């Protein structure tokens, strides 16, 4: 059984009935219910399709935050080989919210930077729910410097509600660390591709997502602030997050139309958590095709990146 979101209740009810019938059938306590199960499965599939055909921005935000959604390390394990993580920023300490290191992608060396949220209580605490501290971004810069030195392409997997806002992080220069990471991404002479796999929140996301090509999963979100944060600032009422999400243009579809991202990776009906292998494989194909397109363009990667970000908002 899945962890159902509030708006998925019609589907949850149907799938609950299916599960009960299957249990009865397996225990031998019911007559043949195969036809009824097939009928309910079709109704469930149709209901799921209907729900996901018209998701609101707020509902997409809920899907992007789904606890069972595949996270950074799921992509790393499935798409890359020989992954060697690096730890520490050589200044203060290690930040496990940021995954950074080197691996091979289809046999070629690649640098990987991503935010890991964790998938249970223990791992979420370990990774601080994907909210990086200054040392995490300085570790990212360290890996970017190495990628530049050895001319290795970079992939960023973005999934964070935002950078960690704690007092200690601010005392250690959170804003400066984010700015330096963003600047380093912009100045790279090697190609870099970023994929928003869940939440792309604020400077915590842009610090590693300033790339030649930026893609988003179909039900991911990318914004300057969380809907709850925006509602608190604009209306002093966090419960109006739904209104903020609608007005902020945070969905992949809105951002593609605004030419802020370069493409959308399709998700299975019901979200990435219903078929992680499918969406991870599709993401791998998009990354592979993206690097090929960049190589075939023959354009200087730094100049390409400069033109891309200067054009945002100018040619709508």
Task: Please write out the topology.
Layout: H1 9-27, H2 34-53, H3 57-64, H4 72-79, E1 81-85, E2 98-105, E3 108-115, H5 121-126, H6 134-149, E4 154-160, H7 167-171, H8 174-187, E5 192-201, H9 202-209, E6 213-217, E7 221-223, H10 227-235, H11 241-248, H12 252-257, E8 263-265, H13 276-297, H14 301-311
Parallel strand pairs: 3-4, 4-5, 5-6, 5-7, 6-8
Antiparallel strand pairs: 1-2, 2-3
Helix pairs in contact: 1-2, 3-11, 4-13, 6-8, 8-9, 10-11
What is the CA-CA span between the terminal residues?
43 Å
Number of strands: 8
The average pLDDT is 91
The CATH architecture of the largest domain can be named as: Alpha-Beta Complex
| Count of helix runs | 14
Q: Specify the overall morphology.
A: globular
**Helix/strand order:** HHHHEEEHHEHHEHEEHHHEHH
Structural class: alpha/beta
**Within the CATH hierarchy, at the fold level, what is the topology of the largest domain?**
2-enoyl-CoA Hydratase, Chain A, domain 1
Task: Write down the CATH class of the largest domain.
Answer: Alpha Beta
Residue stretches low in confidence (pLDDT < 50, at least 5 long) are none
Radius of gyration: 21 Å
Taking the sheet with the most strands, its summary is: 8 strands, mixed
**How would you name the CATH homologous superfamily of the largest domain?**
2-enoyl-CoA Hydratase, Chain A, domain 1
């Amino acid at each position: 059984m899945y962890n159902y979101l509030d708006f998925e209740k019609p589907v949850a009810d149907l799938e609950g009935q299916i599960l009960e019938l299957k249990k009865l059938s397996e225990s031998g306590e019911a007559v043949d219910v195969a036809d009824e199960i097939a009928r309910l499965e079709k109704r469930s599939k149709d209901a799921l399709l209907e729900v996901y055909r018209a998701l609101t921005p707020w509902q997409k935000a809920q899907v992007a935050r789904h606890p069972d959604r595949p996270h950074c390390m799921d992509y790393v394990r499935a798409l890359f080989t020989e992954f060697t993580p690096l730890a520490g920023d050589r200044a203060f300490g290690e930040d496990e919210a940021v995954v950074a290191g080197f691996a091979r992608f289809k046999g070629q060396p690649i640098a990987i930077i991503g935010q890991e949220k964790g998938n249970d209580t223990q791992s979420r605490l370990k990774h601080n729910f994907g909210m990086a501290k200054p040392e995490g971004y300085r570790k990212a810069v360290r890996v970017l410097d190495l990628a530049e030195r050895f001319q290795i392409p970079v992939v960023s997997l973005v999934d964070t509600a935002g950078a960690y806002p704690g007092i200690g992080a601010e005392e250690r220069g959170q804003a400066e660390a984010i700015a330096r990471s963003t600047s380093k991404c912009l100045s790279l002479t090697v190609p870099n591709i970023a994929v928003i796999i869940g939440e792309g929140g604020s400077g915590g996301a842009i610090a590693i997502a300033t790339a030649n090509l930026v893609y988003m999963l179909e039900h991911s979100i990318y914004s300057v602030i969380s809907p709850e944060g925006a509602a608190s600032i604009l209306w002093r009422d966090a419960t109006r997050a739904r209104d903020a999400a609608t007005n902020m243009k945070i969905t992949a579809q809105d951002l593609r139309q605004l030419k802020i991202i370069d493409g959308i990776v399709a998700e299975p009906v019901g979200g990435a958590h219903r078929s992680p292998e499918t969406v991870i494989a599709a993401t791998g194909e998009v990354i592979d095709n993206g690097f090929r397109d960049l190589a075939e363009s023959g354009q200087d990667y730094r100049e390409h990146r400069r033109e891309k970000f200067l054009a945002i908002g100018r040619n709508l």
